[in-house]
Amino acid sequence: MPKQPAHFLFSNTFPGALTGVIALSFLFLVTSSFAGTLIRSGGSTTVLPVVSKAAARYNGLNPEVQVTVSGGGSGVGIQGAGSGLLDIGLASREMTPEEVKKFKQQGLKVHVIGRDAVACVVSSEIYKAGVTALTREQIRAIYEGRIRNWQDVGGPDSRIVVIDKERHRGTRHVFMNYIFGNPKARARGVRLVTGSNNEEQAKIAQSNAAIGMLSFAWMNEEVRGLDLIEGDRIIQPTQDNVENGTYPIVRNLNMLLSEKANLESRKFLEFVLSESGQSIVADLHYIPARKTEGSHLAGKVPGL
């Protein structure tokens, strides 16, 4: 993460949806003495790095504005924006029908700031041992507990450490929707549930036999993304395959604002959608909204 400027506050140490909301309340209290304009944002840890860097850049240009950024997951971002605890919610999934109904009166608007993909990832030891690609059915069987040893899918004789995410996380929603056809699917074979991308990345890197789900931006030499086998095709987890529509596990990166959002919040959103803000999206290995076909956000934010 970038060095935090004087008027930038970041928090990502509160796991779970409930404690995430508590964290948002805490952030409000500790920043309430700031004399300028306060913009409170939080939610998805996938969107968080983009907004963190954008906030640092925006605060430097506008010292009278303080942008706070917190984590907690997409569910926390949607809940926070809908309840008024946040000026801007961050989400890497779409709102559920229940959330749309719950916050209908608040007039939440979803603004796409970029696009991302989720990979099925494994510990580097498993990848180097020969497990570099799996079918959807194999991944499903692993998460259901029907396949428990890497040897059953061409790997070493080692028990599989199956890692899941908290159920409100956007990364989990898109991954489970692809594997099970249900974003809320329960996975009986799971041995560990994690929260943020940082946490899951660390757990997989520390293990020598783990499988999990992460945004492309969080893959590295210790946490390797698997190719997906679909029929006679092998689809690699690359940005090119996301952009050309070949890679199937994709989602939008969203900022959520109420239709009654204050002017400064809408100005910050426009900054994120500007050339300067979109360069941050690209630098973090996401796909800018301006490159997303059919995006309605390549222009001005309504009301500015």
TrEMBL record:
Coiled coil spans: none
SUPFAM superfamilies: Periplasmic binding protein-like II
Record flagged with keyword Flavoprotein: no
Bilayer-crossing regions: none
Matching Pfam families: PBP_like_2
All copies of domain PBP, residue ranges: 36-275
Keyword Aminoacyl-tRNA synthetase listed: no
Protein name: Phosphate ABC transporter substrate-binding protein
Lineage: Bacteria, Pseudomonadati, Nitrospinota/Tectimicrobiota group, Nitrospinota, Nitrospinia
